[in-house]
Design a protein that fits this description.
The complex is a heterodimer of chains A (168) and B (788). With 168 residues, chain A is an alpha+beta fold. Chain A has helices at residues 14-24, 36-46, 53-63, 67-76, 96-100, 103-114, 157-166; strands at 88-92, 127-129, 145-147, 150-152. Chain A has a four-stranded mixed beta sheet with strand order 2-1-3-4, covered by helices on one side. The N and C termini of chain B lie far apart (72 Å). Classes of the chains: A alpha+beta (168), B alpha/beta (788). Chains A and B meet through helix 4 of A and strand 7 of B. The structure holds iron/sulfur cluster and FE2/S2 (inorganic) cluster (2 copies).
Chain lengths: 168, 788
């Protein structure tokens, strides 16, 4: 009711808007909400891997959809984080093929190595061990994990060390 | 049309169904019961609960009846082994996570889940796992949540999107973690929000004020009519031991469909407010005493007699709430006229009566409520229709979503829940100019009209509105509460009339209160008797009565300092009067000061009577609950007063006789808005200084609503503040949060400054009808501001 202090979409960076605009172009003008997934991904990426309410409200305002509809999308898809998390996101597949090939041991090894449980981030803010991913479609070379969008397959503890130790 | 009807068979019964209809609709029409949770005839089909599974011949598996369109020759079985097995399994799934807390659940006894489980479920569950628990949400003072009970039918979500027009609730999370809620800390603020209580098939969303106060089987359901706006929503009142426990809608497709506004749903709390007057009281020698009805009535009659004898009948006046029943209003005007005075009025928030003698039989909507949906273009003049008449707004919303152009001329931009095409937001003094511009753009001319519109400026925006109205198949101009209380209301009406004439649009008024239309018919007017009967000598109108001061007043359901156009004038006149009789349901400190006798009268639900709604529909009702204390129906009190004053025509044994008598008088007479306005000869544009915009918030419109506890806790309940835009604030040297002295015609209050971009230049927003602005002058008029 009182004096508007600017728009909610002000929370988005110029670059994020450009990216969102690019996606918006691909959809009919009365279907702007189609760009919401891409928009959230872009905004999350810029924000160090997680979304805030301000950013989600910004996306809602920019695209022109109800805020709650953006919350619905952001809370539905596991690729969105709604709380601050570590820089590097580790997802260990624990679905059937990986499980049969020992993913539980891999997971346990990572938990021990990093000193955190599934769903937690390391205190130094470096790693985030993401909770239960569904089959990531690399069953052929199970067990596998995804670290920051990259697939690593046929895992062994030694391989895990090698992958994680390389990260900054 | 017959080719659009298909022949189908349900449970061996041959039926006809419209092409495109779903099986469930055809079954419902034939009275064949199919269990359902997510399906609701007023909402889109979600088909997510799967409770409505039925067997369709040739289909390999059961199909959801709510999402399967009928086909010619289709054979459906709703109780076959396959169907029942499907239904039983779905029920079992739904109960996996549903808590077994029926004994402490308000929905118990009227729960669709309970009923369907009884009728279609099995008797044991094979699931032994732990049930999930969902944290309850605080979504405001009206709706209680127990989200563990939610079965995710999404009716409430679809209601928000499709009917309320604000998506506040949603389904967040996924799978087992899915939850219905607002996700962030937030209240649900729609003026129709309470309807989700009825929609929710389980006890997840229930009424907060009603919570834990009665079980459904302890109450009886009775019918009445809502008492706060001109829709006249049909209600069911749930009564226990003669006390109203809660209010729910009664379906009437022509009026309120299946909905009611929050105001109509929750106002009943006002019936039982602490300041309810329970016994008659009189003031003698400056002190109050509770007395018997006989004593009080004698005292009242004697006082009225004395005023007439000593000061003359012209010194007696009556003000009535437009929420009074037809019968009360009829007797009130009869009483006044019997005493020789025509000073009677219900138009409490109006100031300009100059066109009253050419007014229609009663100013009305100009079309049926349902027909509003068919409009292609609407111009709203001084109408915050969403808050004033929530269910009329619902019809306009449907029109807007169909593509109708909704256009606005107002002093404050209302909040809409649908797109509008044009909004001319100008200071009140400029509103006539805008309408004149539109009229001129429409080519209104000839005779004195040329002169009238000579100086009118036609802006491109005016032209656009004119075009839209003119090119629409069906158009209407609706005049709302703000326009009606405008100091130049007659000009606005006339210009709206000219626009309608030129654009071939229907002119409609949004009457005040629940019975504004009925008050005109009953003759609660200074210039007309019952059924529009013209009177040679008009009495004083509401403004004149307050402004010039009379010696004696009869008040019917009014708190003048809050309900009148000019709060200061109203308070002063009453305080200075010799004798004031208040027929009132409440006792306030103001009344103690100005009144001499307080007669406790029944409120809605406690009295029989009739309301005439905006479309001219007469709706009569019976008393459904006992009046509080010694209160009596207003028509009875007035009847006895009439007898005590030895007046003719006060021999009624029930309220129906009063109604029937009036109905006979009205006969076939019809109200014609379009021909009933007087063209002004000039538009008077004088304006200086700052103008107050004093609209009345949705939950401040009448004494009952003002006492609805839960409603008063909502975001829409707001007190007075000094709203102004940054330019005006800078000119006055004021900042957000400052305290400012606000002065109007001798009245003065101190208010907090709130910057608000919606307020136009040269104006300030100071609401009327709320405690904070009591004692100020005209709700639209000059105002002075200084730093406090
Ligand atoms: S709260 Fe009620 S209406 Fe809303 S989804 Fe849950 S069960 Fe359905
Ligand atoms: S089960 Fe792990 S990738 Fe498919
Ligand atoms: S009523 Fe048909 S699926 Fe819910």
């Amino acid at each position: 009711m009182s004096e508007a202090t600017g728009r909610k979409s002000d929370s988005l960076s110029a670059h994020a808007r450009e990216e969102i605009d690019r996606w918006l172009e691909r959809y009919p003008s009365d279907q702007r909400q189609s760009a919401v997934l891409a928009a959230l991904q872009e905004v999350q990426h810029e924000n160090g891997g997680f979304l805030t309410r301000e950013l989600m409200d910004g996306v809602a305002d920019y695209i022109g959809m109800p805020e709650i509809a953006v919350y619905e999308v952001a809370s539905f898809y596991s690729m969105f984080e709604l709380k601050p998390v570590g820089r590097h996101s580790i997802s260990v597949c624990t679905n059937i093929s990986c499980m049969l090939c020992g993913s539980d041991d891999i997971l346990e090894y990572i938990e021990k190595k990093l000193g955190i449980k599934l769903g937690e981030s390391t205190a130094d803010g470096k790693f985030f061990l993401k909770k239960e991913e569904e089959c990531l479609a690399a069953c052929r070379s199970a067990p596998m994990m995804q670290v920051d969008h990259v697939y690593y397959e046929d895992l062994t503890p030694a391989k895990v060390d090698e992958i994680l130790d390389k990260l900054e | 049309m017959s080719e659009d009807l298909l022949n189908i068979e349900i449970n061996g019964q041959p039926l006809q169904a419209r092409r495109g209809a779903m099986i469930i609709e055809a079954a419902d029409a034939a009275g064949i019961q199919i269990p359902r949770f997510c399906y609701h005839k007023k909402l889109s089909v979600a088909a997510n609960c799967r409770m409505c599974l039925v067997e369709v011949e040739k289909a390999p598996k059961p199909l959801p009846a709510c999402a399967t369109p009928v086909a010619d020759g289709m054979k459906v079985r709703t109780r076959s082994a396959l169907a029942r097995d499907g239904q039983r399994s779905v029920m079992e799934f739904l109960l996996i996570n549903h808590p077994l807390d029926c004994p402490i659940c308000d929905q118990g006894g009227e729960c669709e889940l309970q009923d369907v489980a009884m009728g279609f479920g099995g008797d044991i569950s094979r699931f032994q796992e732990r049930k999930r628990v969902v944290k309850d949400k605080d979504i405001g003072p009206l709706i209680a949540t127990d989200m563990t009970r939610c079965i995710h039918c999404t009716r409430c979500v679809r209601f928000g999107e499709e009917i309320a027009g604000v998506r506040e609730l949603g389904a967040t999370g996924r799978g087992e973690d899915m939850e219905i809620g607002t996700f962030v800390e937030k209240s649900v603020d729609s003026e129709l929000s309470g309807n989700v209580i009825d929609l929710c098939p389980v006890g997840a969303l229930t009424s907060k004020p009603f919570r834990y106060s009665a079980r459904s089987w302890e109450m009886v359901q009775r019918s009445t009519i809502a008492a706060h706006d001109a829709v006249g929503s049909n209600l069911h009142v749930h009564v226990r031991r003669n006390r109203v426990m809660r209010v729910v809608p009664r379906e009437n497709e022509d009026v309120n469909e299946t909905w009611i506004s929050d105001r109509d749903r929750f106002s009943y709390e006002g019936l039982y407010s602490e300041d309810r007057l329970s016994a008659p009281a009189i003031k003698r020698g400056g002190s109050w005493a509770d007395v018997d009805w006989d004593v009080a009535l004698d005292f009242a009659a004697n006082g009225i007699r004395r005023v007439v004898a000593e000061r003359g009948a012209q010194q007696l006046g009556a003000l009535a709430s437009p929420n009074s029943t037809l019968e009360e209003l009829c007797l009130l005007q009869k009483l006044l006229r019997g005493m020789g005075s025509s000073n009677v009025d219900h138009r409490l928030r109006q100031a300009d009566f100059s066109d009253q003698d050419v007014a229609p039989l009663f100013p009305w909507l100009g079309q049926s409520i349902a027909d509003l949906e068919l409009l292609d273009a609407v111009l709203l003049v001084g109408a915050d229709v969403r808050k004033e008449q929530p269910l009329i707004n619902n019809r306009l919303r449907k029109a807007a979503l169909r593509g109708a152009g909704i256009m606005v001329v107002n002093a404050l931009e209302p909040n809409f829940n649908y797109p509008t095409e044009a909004a001319m937001i100008v200071p009140p003094g400029d509103m006539p100019g805008v309408l004149a511009g539109i009229a001129k753009a429409l080519g209104v001319r000839g005779g004195k009209r040329d002169k009238l519109l000579e100086s009118a400026q036609v802006e491109p925006a005016h032209e656009a509105i004119a075009e839209r109205l003119k090119n629409a198949g069906r158009a209407s101009v609706l005049v709302g509460a703000f326009a009606t209380s405008h100091p130049q209301a007659a000009d606005l009406r006339a210009l709206a009339g000219l626009i309608c004439e030129a654009a071939d649009a229907a002119l409609g008024y949004l009457p005040a209160g629940a019975n504004g239309a009925g008050a005109w018919l009953a003759g609660a007017l200074p210039h007309r008797g019952p059924a529009g009967q013209m009177l040679a000598d008009a009495g004083a109108d509401a403004q004149a009565m307050m402004h010039d001061g009379l010696a004696g007043y009869v008040l019917l359901g009014v708190e003048p300092e809050l309900d009148c156009w000019d709060s200061a004038a109203a308070s002063n006149s009453l305080r200075e009067a010799d004798f004031v009789v208040a027929l009132t349901a409440y006792r306030t400190s103001e009344m103690d000061e100005y009144a001499d006798v307080l007669l406790p009268v029944s409120l809605f639900a406690e009295t029989s009577g009739t309301f005439v709604n905006a479309e001219g529909r007469w709706q009569s009702f019976e008393a459904v609950a006992a009046p509080v204390g010694d209160a009596r129906p207003g028509w009875r009190v007035l009847r006895v007063l009439g007898n005590l004053l030895d007046l003719e025509g006060f021999v009624y044994t029930d309220s129906q006789q009063i109604r029937d008598e009036l109905k006979d008088k009205v006969g076939e007479a019809r109200a014609d808005n379009n021909a009933a306005w007087r063209e002004p000869s000039r538009l008077d544009g004088k304006r200086s200084g700052l103008t107050r915009i004093g609209d009345v918030p949705v939950y401040a419109v009448d004494p009952v609503v003002r006492r609805g506890k839960a409603l008063q806790g909502t975001r829409d309940a707001c007190d007075a503040r000094l709203g102004l835009n940054a330019t005006v604030a800078a000119k006055l040297g004021l900042q957000q949060g400052d305290r400012a002295r606000v002065t109007q015609e001798g009245g003065e209050v101190v208010l907090e400054v709130e910057l608000d971009t919606r307020v136009p230049d040269d104006c300030v927003h100071v609401r009327a009808g709320v405690p904070g602005s009591v004692g100020l002058g005209p709700c639209i008029g000059e105002i002075k501001i200084s730093k406090a």
